[in-house]
Design a protein that fits this description.
Order of helices and strands: HHHH
Largest sheet: none
Shape: rod-shaped
CATH class of the domain at 1-46: Mainly Alpha
Helix content: over 70%
Family: Belongs to the CCDC90 family.
Pfam family, one: CCDC90-like
Organism: Polioptila caerulea (Blue-grey gnatcatcher)
Protein name: MCUR1 regulator
Keywords: Coiled coil, Membrane, Mitochondrion, Transmembrane, Transmembrane helix
């Protein structure tokens, strides 16, 4: 191990200041031992450049592996989300079709009921059954009530299906956001 000062010069300096040669050599020897002990302790905590580069390469390799795993996971998660979204879209389309079919069916039923009521009234008029104005008003009021009830039922059913569609849509949006935020958090 190299010493970065001149031990002989230190011995001479100590002798010039009143120490004997033996005392000066003992003092310098003690200083060298103390310095060597301190250097040993310092060197214990230090790593060599080669060790540092090996550790850095290991960390970089580990980071590369994690990045690859994240990319694979991201692709698989996004493909799963896409397939789930496609399923939800198909379900929404089926529900929309069912709602439209139901609306068409109810409209047809209402038209049929309305036409039946009209034909019944026409038949009664053609057979000579004449209603008084009060009876005609009552019959019209009942018919109007039936129509209003059917329309209100249709509106209620439409609102119910609309709410179901909104629930499915919100669920799929929140699912996508949750996964995206999870990936974002993992990358940071």
């Amino acid at each position: 191990r190299r010493l970065y000062f001149d031990t002989h010069a230190l011995v001479c300096l100590l002798e010039e200041n009143g120490f004997t040669t033996q005392q000066s050599e003992v003092i310098v020897s003690a200083l060298v031992k103390i310095m060597n002990t301190n250097l040993d302790m310092i060197y214990k905590d230090m790593v060599t450049k080669v060790q540092q580069e090996i550790a850095l390469q290991q960390v970089m390799s580990h980071i590369g592996g994690v990045k690859k795993d994240m990319i694979i996971l991201e692709k698989s998660e996004f493909s799963a989300l896409r397939s789930e979204n496609e399923k939800i879209k198909l379900e929404l389309q089926q529900i929309k079709k069912q709602v439209m079919d139901e609306i068409t069916k109810v409209r047809a039923d209402n038209k049929l009921n309305l036409n039946l009521e009209k034909s019944r009234v026409k038949e009664l008029v053609s057979f000579g059954y004449f209603y008084s104005h009060a009876q005609q008003d009552r019959a019209l009021t009942q018919t109007d009530r039936k129509i209003d009830t059917e329309v209100a039922d249709l509106k209620t059913m439409l609102e119910s299906h609309k709410l179901d569609n909104i629930k499915y849509l919100a669920g799929s949006v929140f699912t996508c956001l949750t996964v995206a935020l999870g990936f974002y958090r993992l990358w940071i």
